[in-house]
Amino acid sequence: MNVRRRHISAVALAAVAALGSGALTACSSDSAAAGGAGQFDVVASFYPMAFLAERIGGEHVHVTSLTQPGQEPHDLEISARQTAQLEESDAALYIKGLQPSVDEAIDQSPIATKIDAAELTSLEEHDAGHDEEHEDEHAHEDEHAHGDEHGHEHAHDHEGGDPHIWLDPVKYAEVAEGVGEAFQKADPDHAADYRANTAALVKDLKALDEKFRTGLANRKTDVFVTTHAAFGHLAERYGLTEQAISGLDPDSEPSGARVKELQKIAKEDGVTTVFYETLVSDRAARTLAADTGLRTDVLDPVEGITDDSRGEDYFQIMEANLTALRTALGAR
To answer: How far apart are CA 206 and CA 202, in angstroms?
Structure first.
């Protein structure tokens, strides 16, 4: 379907990319060119983008995910084969700042339609509760004040906005609406389907937002502890405070001072649980839990789905996250 690029206006091309993430049913395909006749071939950076595109694009879009199931997306290194896929595709859908190798590959690719999902909503900067280890390096208060304006440019560097926008159902819905509009402009023959699919997805996301609001309304504490700072948008949406063992990068190691600070916070704020996730090591979480007499549980950043995931799609895992948060926060 690459030929379609030559017949779309510049404005539509910019939009198409948003539509970018295609059908999840095709995510395991080895070739972006494997889509059926008339489909728009899209490369999605990782699961949340692929899920979004599948729900909006439906049968009209074919998607290939650069990040395979079970692969930690922050660690992704683009292969030569994946670079070739990009060059043969019609669009790329990603979140700039989350996966540096994806950013570089897309920047260097001749692909006509490139969509940064972070451009479709706002990114705020979250300090994950005073992570001194990273404040010493980057997070001066005057820099925080300007995170919204430049956050999407360098989020992975911990200097700007938090890229984990899909963990806030409201922001994810904003991205969905932008992608839906882009699809409609780029492929007007199927605009009615894209419009209907977008509306259905946004309705489901609004319902999920309401479940979180009501489910967390009556709680004993606002504070929860996680392995890495993925849940800042979710915390801000529902009036919670995330305390992360590490920063935005799940591979970073906490300082001794940070561990002591978390031990103190756990005692003062009635923290019961240290959360870890399925795609990275739980060693830091279990060590902190053992030192503080707390229990551990999973809070999934929904960056990929495996056999260990507490659900088969975004909505099921987010509802499992809500259940885990309710227990940890003493909600009733």
So the answer is: 6
Least confident of 33-37, 180-184, 205-209: 33-37
Measured CA to CA, the distance from residue 237 to residue 218 in angstroms comes to: 15
Question: Helices in the chain by DSSP H: which ranges?
Answer: 10-19, 47-57, 80-88, 100-108, 132-135, 141-144, 147-150, 169-186, 191-215, 232-237, 256-268, 283-292, 314-329
- For 60-78, write each residue's pLDDT tens digit: 999 899 999 888 898 899 9
Q: How far is the C-alpha of 126 from the C-alpha of 28, rounded, in Å?
A: 34
Helix (H) or strand (E) holding 61: strand 61-65
User: What is the CA angle 116-122-125, rounded to 5?
Assistant: 105
- Find, among 74, 116, 65, 76, the residue nearest to 229 by Cα: 74
Q: Looking at this protein, which amino acid is placed at residue 81?
A: R
Q: Which residues contact 8 (CB under 8 A, 6 or more apart)?
A: 16, 186
